[in-house]
Give the backbone structure.
Amino acid sequence: MTKILIQGGLIVTATDQYTSNILIDKGKIVSIGENLFTDSDVKIINAEGLLVFPGFIDEHTHMAMPFNGTVTSSWETETIAAAVGGTTTIVDFAKQDKGESLLDTIALWKNKANGNTAIDYSLHVAITDLTEQVIREIPPVVESGVSTLKLFMAYKGEIMMDDEALLTILQESKKVGALVMVHAENGDVIELLQRQLIADGKVEPKYHATSRPIVVEAEATRRAIALAKVAEAPIFVVHVSGEESLEEIRRARSNGQPVFAETCPQYLLLDESYLELPDFEGAKYVCSPPLRYKFNQEKLWQGLFEGSLQTIGTDHCSFNFREQKRLGLDDFRKIPNGVNGIENWLQLLYTFGVQTGKISLNKFVELTSTNPAKYMGLFPRKGAIATGSDADLVLYDPTVSIKITAQNQKQNSDYHLYEGFEVQGIPRYVLLRGEVIARDGEYVGNLEQGRFVSAKPFSAAYGTVQS
Ligand code: URP
Ligand code: ZN
Ligand code: ZN
């Protein structure tokens, strides 16, 4: 394997910005500095004028996942889209089927991914059926390199878990250092409100949001935090959508509880008015929790800035409009929940976060690479530009702007959530373990390249994680 020298770029990490050179050998960063000794067997990439970021990590994706009566887009198309946009690792949710062993779920997910992924991946396991066997499996699951367990407090009748199950998982996870993640919405309340809305003839997409007001999310967030306190375990709340839930997290953290949380680009950049688009187009924006009133966006940016929210993940859960979203034409409850966004999330956050001054360039890297790596047990192999780390790098040209359109996307969907958004900057080179996998928006790798990355238990990584 040829060595690679990345020359003269502005290296941006979660803490530093400096101009230097990076030498890569056998997929790893071997040195960083001014006068690096190189032999003739070295390929030079000129990075002058480019920002050199650690490969971005999307800790929240749903690839090829059966959900709401259909299946999300494939590993092949969506990881290629991720790669061209600068994401070099995802952490995908392996969702347990009823009665299935967790180890089988993980094996099934690896089977789907291996040979079909453009980028590296790690896994969370989503528990949907808590049996004695599942409880016994938690230690071997963590030993197998899957150290984050997810529970849904919503989607009643499908995958919702009750408080007893959540407390049990928190207690069992704590014993082996696993981190529990929660989708926090009160599924009982949502189901009742939905039945009432439908009985009143309120079937359009906008009633999806009416049936899931933020108080229902905030209540579940508070409950999950309370159960974590009972278990004396850490907890990670996914896709925080607005102020009231954020307040619950802020309060717990200010009391010293190890509560961590993520928000997503859609909650920072879109609002619930999109659900009212005519001709059923609002269905494109149906996700859970739903998009909120616009004022929540500023609150979430503030939460990121001050550290109450530690990461951003896309919750990429992509369905097409023509067949899949249309399943709910006569009943919003049947619209598959989920949106796309993995291709352009970094450009969007760079443009609307960094360029507007809401977050610094270092904070941008912390939220989208370094912290996801730390919380998901992948640091410092991932999420860092340091000697010994995987040479996952994104060489970003901030001088170019593009307009996002579905026509030009690599995501396999007939719409783009951010249609018409103008973004600043494009990844010129994306490297995965020292190999160029994307160049100027085109994928140049092969689907054998992506590998499973084992996650360390959260307790082992906790020393590196800021609380
Ligand atoms: O609507 C969403 N978020 N779909 C994906 C599944 C989940 O709840 O994360
Ligand atoms: Zn969720
Ligand atoms: Zn999700």
